[in-house]
Amino acid sequence: MRVVRFRLIAVGLVLLLLAAACGDDEGESTTTEAATTTEAATTTEAATTTEATTTTEATTTTEAAPPIKIMSMGAYSGLIANPEIAPAVDAAIQGINRDGGINGVMLEQIVCDTEGDPNLEAECAQQAVDEGAAAVIGSIFLSGADAYAILEAAGIPVIGGVINTQADFTSSVSFPTGSGLVGSAANLSAGLADAGATTLATVYVDLPQAAAIPMFGNAGLGRYGLEYTVSVPVPLGAPDMATYVAAATSGGVDGVSIFLSGQDALNFVVALKQANPDINTAIMMSQMDETLAALGESAEGLIFPASYPTDMEDPAVQRFYADMEAAGAEETGGNASAVYAGVLVFAEVAATLDEVTGPAMVEALSAAGVIDVGLIGPLDFSQPGLLSLPRLFQACHGIAVIENGEPVGLGSRNYLTGEAC
What we know:
The strands form 5 sheets. A 6-stranded mixed sheet has the order 1-5-4-6-7-8, sandwiched between helices. The protein has helices at residues 85-98, 121-130, 145-154, 166-170, 180-194, 213-221, 242-248, 262-275, 288-295, 315-326, 336-350, 358-367, and strands at 2-6, 16-30, 46-59, 68-74, 107-113, 135-137, 158-159, 174-175, 200-205, 228-234, 255-260, 280-285, 303-305, 370-371, 379-380, 396-403, 406-414. It is an alpha/beta fold and 421 residues long. The protein has 2 domains: 68-180 and 312-395, 3-Layer(aba) Sandwich (Rossmann fold); 181-308 and 402-414, Response regulator (Rossmann fold, 3-Layer(aba) Sandwich). It starts with a strand and ends in a 7-residue tail after the last strand. The protein has 12 helices and 17 strands.
């Protein structure tokens, strides 16, 4: 397991002032003596002693408060990698710290990369407990069960995580800011229907948590009177996509949604476009930027999650891009904006607390009411979850399409009703 730290706290300035002044004056002694034939003696003696000692000691010490620690954990490398997440969290933290932190206290990020190994998730969660993290932000789990058990016991919230696993949808400490796989599957499927597809297939990575993708997609197709008729699971790293393409295009399929990792997604789309260049295609994948670039002309017409904020008149969008650029975070797509927003949610709620701890954050998030930080739709963690999923709170999800080689936003909409958000 690789552990990286982004330490973003300002070093405390300690100022020590010591001033001392000491003065010692001794008065003069005068004797006058006169002698005549008539003896007279006059003696005048005056002794004056003035001693003043003044010591002024002023000590002023200003020490920076210990930073508030948050952890990002998940698959940031490996076959299913989301390398954009930790840099986006870092960018948000740097922006908040430049503005003075949270009530003057700086944030510090700890990054724990599970490298796509579910067995390392619990180890990362335990590290969050051991290091006193107030929250986990920007998580992506392949299993999640063991990690969530540890975080629940410690009362550490998971904010802005990529919601993929059963625990993401059900844990009492899960506070997702996006709609994750649910919103993507539903709105990408609706995008295919809007493009004219009527017979639909979905292709997804052959993992247990991905088996629900057809159901999530059907949630977006219901208003069109459609549902998926073909479902094709694909093993990770499949060497030849021809068999899976043939299965996905059987039975007159005219629209395919794809949920695969970067290289697998690239290989599948290339094979699909070779078999049927005009088929309607929607895709959700890790490493979106690199895959779209590698597809070149084959990417034309692809429908994909609108993970790039596009309203440049929106101050929240302007700040997102400015902070990402300032932090040197190059990939602004994928889950970058959602996890960036997760840090803003954390900061807004943490600012209301006298002491920022995991349990205090869980309680405050649950009672905060509507939270609107921009970039994403408003959230209210006190309300029941959507689609009977206890921890699904975000109803908005955006999609886009590649036109003339450029992404064009199709807007953010409610993935259950189709209404604009």
